[in-house]
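Justification of computing resources. Each target in the renewal requires a structure prediction run like the one illustrated here; the chain below, 137 residues long, is used simply to show the kind of job we budget for.
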Amino acid sequence: MKKQETYSISQLSSELDISTRTIRYYEERGLLHPTRSPGGTRRYTKADRARLKLILRGKRFGFSLDEIKEMLDLFYEDRLGVKQLERTIEYGVEKIKQVEEQIEELTVLRDELLSFKEAFEARLWELKRSNTENEGN
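Resulting structure tokens:
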């Protein structure tokens, strides 16, 4: 029987470009469950590595660690993944709504900034024109 490949915390940290402290924090929060060598060193399986990648993807999409943990843990309740997918879709719909609201807010902000910029440019042009006319007199 082939021995399952494992990874050290340093290997995962380097491969995924995150700190070892971050990985330990995810373990403290119950998102990861590495085994320990006889010397107490954390050893991560391929499944742990995949789970860590999903955690990082969830963070990139703006999900909280509690939401990510819930979505990941649902897989163990339903190996077909139906519950996990249903909950992930629910969270995804909410996240899309939040992103759309942020886009709308940023669009309004951009339009306000453009309006101020145009007003300032017009004022600057007027001041320069006035200054030029005064120098000519």
